[in-house]
Amino acid sequence: MPISSSSTEKFVNIATIRDNCVILKDGSLRAVLMVSGINFDLLSDTEQEVIINAYQSLLNSLDFSLQILIHSRKVNMNNYLEEIKYVGEKETNELLRLQIEEYYNFIEELVRSTNIMVKRFYVVIPYSSSPIISAAGGGLEPILSKLPFGKKTTPQEKSEKKELDFENQKMQLYYRVNAIISALKPMGLNAIRLKTADLIELYYNFYNPEKQERKNLAIASELDAEYEEYSLE
Question: Are residues 92 and 67 in the same domain?
Fold first, then answer.
């Protein structure tokens, strides 16, 4: 029996995604960083100690929680295969064209017979403004709004206040994001904040684990380029 989208929405805690923020149903915000990886076991004892100390300093400096995610997913190789095919069709050298064709057939067979996986690392940074004192009815605001005194708030004023609160929370979250990105640098880790389109694609992949990625996240290539540049310094 198919499950309607309306019956599954209640299990998703996300209200919307905008301005590079994930907005949860309780009004709190989340920012997501994609972080490069390092092969810790291949480092020297001194390098490992430096990274451990930097990680300890990061944990000691936090006054809010962090969520660290490792996401493994089957890679969509269709775009890569199309690029190989396009290059082969444009190649004028017959020998190179045959080699490209053999390579295309090899990759195509590999994709059919093997699940090619990619592993990405994420850090989720939260921010929530101080909660209003609650009451049995879900807060004092609904109760106070019914009292026969004071100026009633219009829908437009409520909307403007909600937008102002969002802008304030977004700025506080921005400061936290920059602090975490800076704290990861001494560990040799580059981090990039996911933009709105990247967040939508990422959460689509999370909630549809049986499917391949619809496309490669553009920000992943950006992160890889930054990591290569950092490694050369």
Answer: no
